[in-house]
Amino acid sequence: xxQKCIFCAIASKQIPASTIYExxxxxxxxxxxxxxxxxxxxxxxxxxxxxFDISEKDLKHISTVAQGIANKMKEVLYAEGVDxxxxxxxxxxxxxxxxxxHIIPRKTGDQLGLHEWWTNRMQRxxxxxxxxxxxxxxxxxxxKVTEPVRKVRKPKEKKKSKDDVFWIxxxxxxx
Length: 175
What we know:
- The chain is α+β, with helices and mostly antiparallel strands.
- The protein folds into 2 domains: 6-110, HIT-like (HIT family, subunit A), CATH 3.30.428.10; 127-174, no CATH class.
- Helix content is 34%, strand content 14%.
- The chain has 5 helices and 5 strands; from the N terminus they run αβββαββααα.
- The protein has a 5-stranded antiparallel beta sheet, with helices on one face.
- A hairpin with a 3-residue loop joins strand 1 (19-22) and strand 2.
- The longest helix is centred in the middle third of the chain and has 21 residues, at 56-76.
- The chain starts with 5 loop residues before the first helix and ends with a helix.
- The mean pLDDT is 84.
């Protein structure tokens, strides 16, 4: 168990949780701060910080468990749909450094507002840029990777606008 990891403590029964599913590999429990009734978290019982650390086999198992729980939500809570959400890494606003998949049951008119949140933050991409990015991201090795990929590429430096250049020159002249 990772020191001070709340989800490791929950998995090892040091902290109580409202468990809805458990097997030898995973634990699913109700979120203490739910977005909707039945909001559930599915975690591996061992410490894996994020999607880059969890094994492929265990990730598949968590997906299977999530599907089963979603079906149960449909049956018991009359959920019309579910949102699956997983944030990996600090840049993605991961709040607890232990892999966890959110299953959020949804009903028409539930006022959660995820669609509005999403559409307010969308950016329009040009087809040429999308095709270039698709070429860079293409892979045929999915399912063949056994070790987590840990390469981090430095983002390309943003080109300076005319205003940026003006203020940089101005700052240099003043010093």
